[in-house]
Specification:
The complex is a heterodimer of chains A (321) and B (459). Chain A has 14 helices and no strands. Chain A has helices at residues 7-22, 24-34, 36-62, 79-85, 88-124, 130-142, 145-155, 163-170, 182-210, 214-222, 227-255, 259-264, 276-285, 290-315. In chain A, helix 5 (88-124) packs antiparallel against helix 6 (130-142), helix 9 packs across helix 11 (227-255) and helix 11 (227-255) runs antiparallel to helix 14. Chain A is flat, with a radius of gyration of 28 Å. Chain B has two domains: 13-174 and 334-407, D-Maltodextrin-Binding Protein, domain 2 (3-Layer(aba) Sandwich), CATH 3.40.190.10; 176-332 and 411-450, Periplasmic binding protein-like II (D-Maltodextrin-Binding Protein, domain 2, 3-Layer(aba) Sandwich). Chain B has 18 helices and 14 strands. In chain B, helix 3 links the parallel strand 3 and strand 4 (95-101). In chain B, 57% of the residues are buried. The chains are: A mainly alpha (321), B alpha+beta (459). Chain B: InterPro entries: Bact_solute-bd_prot1 (IPR050490), SBP (IPR006059).
Chain lengths: 321, 459
Amino acid sequence: MTTEPPAAERSLWARLRRTVGDGTVADFVDRGVSHPLFWLLPALLFIGVFQLYPMVEVFRMSLTDTSLISSQESYVWLENYRRLLGSERFYSTLRVTAIYSVGSIVLQLGLGLGLALAIDYGVRRGLRGPLLTRVVVLSAWVVPGIIIGLVWRIMLLETDVGVVNNALGRLGFEVVPFLSDAGMAVVSVIAAGAWRGTAFSMIMFYAGLKRVPEDLYRAAKVDGAGPVARFRYVTLPQLKPVVFVVTILVTIYSLNSFDLIFALTNGGPGRATEVIALAMYKSAFESYQMGMAAATAVVLLVVTLTVTAVYFRVFDISEEI
Amino acid sequence: MPTDVSNDEHHGRSRRTVLLATGAIGTAALAGCAGGGGDDDERPVTHGRVGTGDVEFDHWTSAFYSPDEDESLQPEAASAMRARFEEWAEENPEYRANLVYQADLDQWESQLVTRASNGEAPASSTLDSVWVPDNREYLQPLNDYVDDIDDFFPFVRETAMEGDDLLAAWFYTGLRCLYYRTDLVEEYGDGDPPRTWDDLLEVGGAIADGEGVAGFTIQMSALDTLPFFWGQGGELVDDDGMPVLGDEDNYDALLSTFEFFADLVEAGVTPQRVGTLDDPAQVGEEAANGQSAMFIGSNSRYQISIEPNDDDPERWDVAEIPMREADQFATGVGGWTEGVYAEDGDVAEAAKSFAAKAVEPETMGRYCEAGSQLPTRESVFDDDEIYSSDTFRFQDQFREFLRNGVARPSAPIYSEAIAEEWVTAKERVFTQQSSPEEAVGTMLDNIADSYDGDVEYDD
């Protein structure tokens, strides 16, 4: 047995039934679902909560004297930026970061492209080994940076126990100060970073090479183009969007490098290999100066955005993307 | 097995290594034992709890100090911890301490400070002595619970006290000293260990030339080299915590210390590569393997690195750290403490009595003997019943050295800037990137920049 709803509810029920009957709710749902915002909402929420809010909070914190060892916090506005930009240490880390990034980009792009071309060559000619090569190179990419740093550190020990120095000693060379000489330490850090990052570049370039139509190579051959000419006038133009993407990603990754350097040299000797991200970590968790660390993070963000903008202008690939 | 955790500049790297390696176990222990929730065991002491009383409080600690041999990261000391806890539980049946194990030292340290600043700290915690300065604003006095404060070595009274208030129960310590090969010092010197820097340069250089090994090595931590500065009377900060290491008298001690570092490398006594040596175990093991003749190491370095790795460990001996002048003495000390954050009420009383128990002479002697550590009370050395005279091969010398112990200063600027800048400057000099004057100048500028206030070195 059903009971009759009270008058107010009866009225509401009647309106709802009428609405459904008229199709207004269905239309409303249809309109909502068909609006792009509905589908973008989860992503916007995710970005807002996990990316935009932390970014805003970091910027706010950079204007304060927040410290891990004090409950007091006050706004010092641009004081952290003034201290940062006025310190010799900042320019030292900026210089090291620039050297590390440029070295990493050149090596990772060069080696990645070289490996990708070699593998592509092997695949096109049905040679054995490209798969194994890809797996071996990729294994460097899946190992965490901290582990790679420790492994390289052991390899570069400056005694007979060090793998590299031991090998050099057997060949009659003196012990090479890979980590205790400031210049060599920078080279060592770049080499370790390139060893790890080359796999990523290789995979990206290899994927790009697979997209180059075979017809273009055949046409170039018919026109009399040799291997170098085919690379120059067919392969490179076809790879331009991939080069752009890889360059941007490797640059961003290099500018933010932290784990590998932390494990390999911890920024030393002195501060010879201290990059911006490592200086930021030390400000936050060794000196407890969260405000200063946040200011460093903001400056690093600005540097990264600026470099990316320059890339967009230099590459001029608006037609491709 | 003795550990080298007590006084490592980097907050106990050996301990950290073990903690990291057992991270999963630690996490499981946290999940299973934190707070002792749901523990219906009737025993007075378990891995997660001490006592069964109604007044309950959380005590943060490390699995190094577990009373359970199966759970402890230092099983040889578990029985001593158990005895301490059982005695306390029997003396205080109304109290119950829930042991909350911390698996990561850095997080532990930062959590303590952050929580304390928000008024959410645990009632009590075990603290590395180097954490005490950052926590001194929040630590509560233990004077009413700790007897005979004058019995502690001077460095405890100078570091863990604020005025007359004892803020931390420092229950063991460690020190730095010179380890040297007696056979080589006999062959290339007069047989006596180097007492001054000139002695060290002379005998170290002769050994390096004659044997083709490093004459002297040192780890890149502040605590290993600050004694060279402290021994000259150098001071890092004043009573207000302001950096004064650039003041006239201190500057002279500072510069001479860094000039000594430069001399070590230039004379070929110390290889440039020590500029990257930050692992105390590596320093000790290189020496045990015949790659160096002298080094600065902790009191437990002999048992950890030399004895197990050297075919003839008897050829090693220890001495006070060489100084600029023969009548100067200093050694760096560290160790772990118990501190209380609870301010009042039954919980504060319970936590304070729990912390104080750690520094009763019998408790301290028992733990130090079991864990191969050094007591912070001088009287403990006198009683063979509570602290065996055989705990260390060089025990009598260590007792003497402790009288000249200097702990890292109780000022936030030390951990915020001085320690890091000291190490950086030292690395730059050892790796010949900077002259001593440049390295010291940059260090002083950076420390002044980091200090929350105006620093004008009085020169």
